Amino acid sequence: MKQITMLLPLLLFLYGCGDDPAGPNASLGSMNISINHAFADKEFVLGTTFQLANGESISCSMIRYYLSNIKLERADGSMHVIPQDSSYKLIDMSVPSTLKCSFSDIPAGTYTAVHIVVGVDSLRSTMGLDKRTGVLDIGAAAQDMYWSWNQGYIHFKFEGTYASGSATGGIRYHVGGFGGYSTQTINCIRSVRINLASKPCIISSNQSTTLHLAADVNKIFTGKEAISVATNNSVMFAPYATTIADNYATMFSHLVKD
């Protein structure tokens, strides 16, 4: 454990360095990421009932999830890494201000993809509390997104109700697990690459650019593997959580606006 502790600062430093070729004298701009939630081709609204392809219906009262470790990719494959301390965002559908994230000091250029981690990475999850502030503060913003008994963050939380035929009930998906610290556990951290090639994100010097992303809530239930909510209406720290994680990793895409 002592060796792991000694390596943490070095690993964080190396991650922050990335492979950005822009150099210290690059012209800088800023970027906003705006997230628009939908349900297939419909606008997604908390409390609204939506139909799944299998005939079940769902209504959502809560969606919260972490996005982190954001990187911008150029056409040549090189990356600009958002400083990790600035990249942790807690998205909450009931708090509109969280659906827009701002980042500064981005080298001017054309970016054709964005990389995002859904969840809180294992390295940060094992750091001291002084390295887990803001939306990661387990005594404040993260108090409902952290399992003290498991020493880990809840990456994704969905709560609501469902109906299947004459059966009704509640939905509770609290998905976490970062692979374990001293013993192996489930890992529900998911890395997502969002292709922007159809309309690249152009950062200009001293200008602010907005990148619009879509999050399709329907994909939670149909993304990689179609699931029955009636059969799996409560999923927490269990192997099936990885299925939910695989699904919600498919929900993000580039929302192209004129």
Can you lay out the helices and strands and say which pair or pack?
Blueprint: H1 2-17, E1 28-39, E2 42-43, E3 49-51, E4 57-74, E5 79-81, E6 89-92, E7 100-107, E8 109-118, H2 122-125, E9 146-147, E10 152-164, E11 167-176, E12 190-195, E13 201-203, E14 208-216, H3 219-222, E15 234-235, H4 241-248, E16 252-254
Parallel strand pairs: 1-14, 11-15
Antiparallel strand pairs: 1-2, 1-7, 3-4, 4-5, 4-6, 4-8, 4-10, 8-12, 8-13, 9-10, 10-11, 14-16
Structural commentary:
With 258 residues, this protein is mainly beta. The chain has one domain (2-20, 46-94, 109-204, 220-249). Helices cover 12% and strands 42% of the residues. The strands form two sheets. Strands 3, 4, 5, 6, 8, 9, 10, 11, 12, 13 and 15 form an eleven-stranded mixed beta sheet that branches. Strands 1, 2, 7, 14 and 16 form a five-stranded mixed beta sheet that branches. The radius of gyration is 19 Å and the shape is globular. The protein starts with a helix and ends with a strand. The model is unreliable at 1-18 (pLDDT under 50).
Strand content: 35-45%
What integer value in Å does the Rg equal? Answer: 19 Å
Helix content: 10-25%
- H/E series: HEEEEEEEEHEEEEEEHEHE
Number of strands: 16
Broad structural category: mainly beta
Distance between the termini: 52 Å
Task: Please give the domain count.
Answer: 1
What's the main sheet like?
A: 11 strands, mixed
Please, what is the oligomeric state?
Answer: single chain
Judging from the principal axes of the Cα atoms, what is the shape? Answer: globular
Question: Which blocks of ≥5 consecutive residues have pLDDT under 50?
Answer: 1-18
Q: Number of helical segments?
A: 4
The averaged pLDDT comes out at 90
